[in-house]
Amino acid sequence: MITLTHYLVVAGAMFAIGLVGVMRRKNLLMLFFSTEILLNAANVGFAAVSKFYGDLTGQMFAFFIIAVAASEVAVGLGLLVLWYKRTGSIDLDSLQMMKG
Amino acid sequence: MEHLLYTALFAPLAGSLFAALFGARPKMLLTGIVTSALLAVSMVASLLLLAYVDGTTRVHVTLFDWISAGSFSIPFGFVVDQVSAIMMVTVTVVSTAVHVYSIGYMDHDKGFNRYFSYLSAFVFSMMILIMSDNFVGLFIGWEGVGLCSWLLIGFWYHKHSASWAANEAFIMNRIADLGMLMGLFLIYWQVGSLQYDAVFERIEFVAPSVVATIGILLFIGAMGKSAQFPLHTWLADAMEGPTPVSALIHAATMVTAGVYLVIRAHPIYEIIPQVGFFIASLGAFVAVFAATMALVNNDLKRIIAYSTLSQLGYMFVAAGLGAYWIALFHLMTHAFFKSLLFLGAGNVMHAMHDELNIKKMGGLYESMKVTAILMVLASIALAGIYPFAGFFSKDKILEVAFNEGAYVLWGALFLGAGLTAFYSFRLVMLVFFGKKEHEKHGIHPHEAYTYVLMAMAPLGVLAVVAGFFEKGFHRFVTTLLPEYTMHIPHSTAYLLIGGTLLIALSGIGFAVYMYGKKGGFPVWMEEHFCYKLLSNQYYIPQLYKEGIMKPFTTISIFLWKSIDQKIVDKTVDVIASGLVRLGKGANGMQTGNLSTMLRWMVVGLVTLLVLAVFYRP
User: Fold this and answer.
1) C-beta contacts of A7-15 below 8 A and 24+ residues apart
2) Residue A98 lies in a domain
3) How many structural domains comprise chain A?
4) Best of B587, B589, B591, B593 to disrupt the A interface by mutation (most A CBs within 10 Å)?
5) Domain range for residue A33?
6) ∠ CA B71-B75-B78, rounded to 5°
7) B85, B46 Cβ separation under 8 angstroms
8) Residue A45 is assigned to a structural domain of this protein
9) What is the signed CA dihedral for A87, A90, A92, A95, rounded to 10 degrees?
10) What are the pLDDT digits (tens) for B514-534?
11) Which pairing describes strands B72-80 and B59-69: parallel, antiparallel, or unpaired?
12) CATH code assigned at A11
């Protein structure tokens, strides 16, 4: 039997993986993947809790997040491509123009 | 009638604001004319109000609620009753004359517009002071005239002595104002209101000892404004200001505010005759004390200033002994002849190119006939010779002192009357008659402008005839002020009048003889100890300097160097430098690397999460 706890554990594990990715990865593309994992961890949580309580609000919220994530990736990838064309690199350490 | 009241009150303010618009501009004759015209409007309104309040009527208006907090409520209200009507007329008549006079006097001054702005602002503050229907309004006016006095004494602020004198006057008054303020607090605490009507109605239910404290505290305020001993030194130094200012503020109006306060608060002082007697004693002391200083001084304006001090002493004697209407009467007549005397002194100063030493003048009668005549009239009025104004009021005060059985006070005032006559005519003789000392200095005196003399003329007329208003004045003000009954027989009264007249005449005669015939006192007298004591003002300014100012400076320097710099400033410095160091340390976080920043973000997130989970307020 798979209970709510299992889902939440999976969500927590995904969130941890995403967080580590955000912190450790130096490739901008990988950073985007990690962000997606973070968002989907939240989605899993929402969906599971929504099912548990029998309340559709959570699932609706998850849909919103998916929509937002899709648009975010579209914009983000566009910027990324532009950046690559300019500098030939998508390494985070090269992104230091704003250093004071 | 309300419109008249508002006109009388706000016309000077309008004039002041108008002149202030051009404060930084070079001289514009217009500002002088507009302020004078508005003052004249205010004067006419005051005269109409005076005619209106005759009898039992009075005008009482409330402009708006001013301070309202909890049960504490003070409306911005004004009242015109018999006392304030008399004060308003006195103030506006003298102010109008002084304004017109000033157009001539300040003719060549760079600060012409600024001067008129200050002068009208002063009149406005004075009107607030005398028209307010509560103690707080009176206090606001009180502070307002103090401020304007400071501005005007220090009008020529580039002169060190002027700015010093202005500060001295302001600080002395501040000391006294603390007393007054505490008196007001005590009244509110005991009575629960600061409206005159409410306070005077309920003051008899307050314990007599508390009333005595209130009376003393209020009188301390009056002592500062009216320059009574020991807070008198500022008045003589205030002569640094322009002469019309001395005439208006430091002779006719502001310095009499203390007397006005005592008269206005007469229901309080009636309960506590002991305090009243103390006031009278101090007044009599100052009357003689100041007159003696005037005897030997050689500064034209200072002599008149000491004379003012002395006359204020007379007023306090009358007020302290319960003869409030006589005090008010002397206040009014004194305002007329003393401002005339000052304005005459201003003419002399102009003619002598700002020379103030009367020993260097002499024989000015030939070139300045009108001024000389006006000043002689004012001096006779001051000396108290029948039928001039001073005779009626001053004589009444002496009668009151005798009537109360205060023979020592009477003796002091009697002596003071002789001294007054002597020093007034010493001044007149040295300035207008005798040898022409000024020719040695190559000065060619000239008479003032005609309109300046015209402005002085009404005051001259009033100085002569004001005494004859006595009966009407008495009937008018005693509807509000308590009646004072003389119970000495008429024969004694006539004897007293005769005696006073005699001593005044002999004072004049002595001065005329000594300075006219004999050409002054022998020089050896100036070496005498008494002369030095008097000409150094009893060494009181030196005493204040050595005894108060020097120790105070020492303490101030100590506090500045050791407490302020080492503790207060240090604390602030440590806080500032700590923050700078913290900032420098935290600067390392700002690498500009997105990865590092994300890590810090996570650190922040985790911290907040931990707090959210474990922190239970």
Assistant:
1) A7/A44, A7/A45, A7/A47, A7/A48, A8/A45, A8/A48, A8/A49, A10/A44, A11/A41, A11/A42, A11/A44, A11/A45, A11/A48, A12/A41, A14/A38, A14/A40, A14/A41, A14/A44, A15/A41, A15/A42
2) no
3) 1
4) B593
5) 4-90
6) 150
7) yes
8) yes
9) 20
10) 887 777 777 777 777 777 887
11) antiparallel
12) 1.10.287.3510
Assigned domain for A100 exists: no
pLDDT in tens, B64-73: 888 888 777 8
Q: Whats the size of chain B, residue-wise?
A: 617
Which residue on chain B is closest to A19 by alpha carbon? Answer: B602
Q: Is residue A31 situated within a structural domain? A: yes
Per-residue tens of pLDDT for chain A, all 100 residues: 888 999 999 999 999 999 999 888 888 889 899 999 999 999 999 999 999 999 999 999 999 999 999 999 999 999 999 989 988 888 887 777 766 5
Tokens of A77: 């990838």
DSSP bridge partners of A91: A27
Q: How far is A93 from chain B (nearest CA, A)?
A: 6
Q: How remote is the C-alpha of B482 from its chain's centroid?
A: 25
Q: Which of A27, A93, A97 to mutate to test the interface with B (most CBs of B within 10 A)?
A: A93
CA atoms of B34 and B40, how far apart (whole Å) = 10
Question: What's at A91, amino acid-wise?
Answer: D
Chain A / chain B CB contacts < 8 angstroms: 27
Subunit contact B599:A26, Cβ cutoff 8 A = no
Q: Determine the distance in angstroms separating the CA of B576 from the nearest CA of chain A, rounded to an integer.
A: 23
Min distance B579 CA to chain A CA atoms (Å): 20
Please give the average per-residue pLDDT across B548-559, as a whole number: 92
- A chain contacts of residue B599, beta-carbon cutoff 8 Å: 23
d(CA B403, CA B397): 10
C-alpha B4/C-alpha B58 separation (Å) is 13
Question: Which residue of B590, B593, B594 is in closest CB contact with A100?
Answer: B590
Q: Quick one: closest CA in A to B606, which residue? A: A19
Task: Select from B592, B599, B602 the Cβ nearest to the Cβ of A99.
Answer: B592
Name residues whose C-beta falls within 8 Å of residue B134's C-beta, 6 or more positions apart in sequence.
B74, B75, B77, B194, B195, B196
